[in-house]
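Review form for a predicted model. The reviewer records the input and the model, then writes brief findings.
Reviewer: anonymous (R2)
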Amino acid sequence: MKSSFWNKFLVTPTKINFPNYKFDLHVHSQNSDGKLFPKELIESARKNNIKLISITDHQTIDSYKDELFQNAKKNNIDLLPGIEIECQGELDILIYDLNPNEISQEFKLKINELLTYLNKKRNKYILESINKIKEVITTSKDFDWIVWDSFNDLQKNNFWKQFNFENASKIDLETGELNLPNRTYVSKPHLAKLLSTFGVIDMRKVDSSLNYQADEKNKFIQKHFIDKVIGWGLNDLSFDYETLKLIKELPFIKIIAHPGKPFERWNNSNDEKEFINFLESLFVFNMDGIEGDYRHYKEMGLNYNKVSKIYLKNRVKAKNTVLFCTGGSDSHKNLD
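Model under review:
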């Protein structure tokens, strides 16, 4: 047993243990792509009587400052250090420190070593996307809702100077202001929010058949312009086994996040046996469990939470091993 705390999530051959109070071990803050700041997430947890949370930001543990732990303690909330590591192809691994209410030096050291390598590799794709967005915005004649030609020289120069990685890393996803410390993580929401501030996309001219309204500019930019027109390079990458090998060696709790999402991304069927084989292939990398209570699945082919829990119990029985089952909302805003 790695920590007595984890008995709360212990899997046995006949039972999945969960705490007897509300918890959420998968939430995001403004330090990655959430809309609330870490302190606001603590307040949201308090209002909703959630007694245990983990802020599992993508590729960063910047939320875990002493003052946040103090704030959580003041509100009678246990705060478990965690992170969501992207392994491409919609495969994410949640990694947790061993105990709540403090972050160990070992966790900080080893996670930051991993991130130094991963973020350098990932940011190459973000920079490519920024350059491609600039190219399409300034040269394409295929979309009448791109109104670059109506810009004066001052507006054009401002776009060229300001639409960049640094500003995307500083943008507040709620207000659109460039008032945050530089993030280490930039993704589609940041580029969409930054791009929307320049007015180069006229939502009044967006084809109504695309089902986007004027107040859905960020959604349109993410779901249509970036995904379909630009092409988000990270979407097309298959699983990064080199990253999985690095995660395998970490002495922390390693949980497969929302396994139904990467499975359906790369499989043409919803066959239960194929899903189990998919889980088996990931446990080669020393996984400690599965997020078997993922609360954000939408119209998926299988009941992945149910099958994941059955798989965990069967694996514990067959392998005589210790495994855990966690749960979370994957919320990027208020908790409930």
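Findings: The chain is about 40% helix and 10% strand.
Further findings: The chain has a mean pLDDT of 96.
Recommendation: see findings above.
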